[in-house]
Amino acid sequence: MKYLFTFCLLCTFVVAQAQVSIGVLAGYNRSQEQYDVEVPDDAVLHIPSYHVSALMTVPLGKRFGVAAEAGFIQRGAACRPGFVGFDQDSELRLHYGQANVNVTFDALRWRRLTLSTYAGLGGSYLFSGNTTIDDLWSDTRIRRALEIGDRWRRFDVGANAGALVSFRAGCGNLLARVGAYRGFRHVDSENFSLSRDLLLSVGYAQSF
Fold this sequence. Notes:
By secondary structure, the protein is mainly β.
C-alpha cells in the first residue's frame, strides 16, 4: 500500500511541476473501411473528411509525455464504381465524438523545432451518420440517415500513431501533424467494416 501511495505522490509531483501544453488541432482526414467483398480494380474506396480537437500534453521527464485529445471526427467510406454485382455508387459518412490518450516521445530537437512521435489508443462514440447511393441506371441519388444502435455500432475503439512537428513562435507553438487510426471493431455489425483513417492536422498550442 505504501508503494502505491508513494507512486501517486510522485505522479502528482511530476504533473504539478510539468509545463502543461494546451492547444487545438484541425484538418483533413482520408477515411475508408477495410472490406472483405470484391470491388472493381479502379474503385475509389475513401472519402475526404475532417476533424477538430482539443489537445493537452503533460511532459513526463525530458523527452516522454502523455497527450489527451478530445473532439469531433467524420469517418466513412465509399465505393465508386459500386461493388461487383451492385450497380450503384455508394458513400457512407459517420460523425463521431472521439477521445484519445497517447504516449509521446520527442525524437528530435533543433532550435525552435521539435519532432515528436506518438502512439496510443482512442475511443469513439457515433452520434449520427448517413448513406448516399447513386443509381447508375436511373441517374437518381438516395440519401438515408442511419439507424444507430442495432446494425450500426455506437462505439468504436482503435489505435493511433503518427508524428508531430512543433515550431516555437512567441509564447506558443505552431503544430503540424500526420497520423493514422486503425479501428478494432466493425462499424457495420453485419459486414466486415474496420475504420481506416489517414489524418493531416495543423494547430496551435500554449504552454502553462
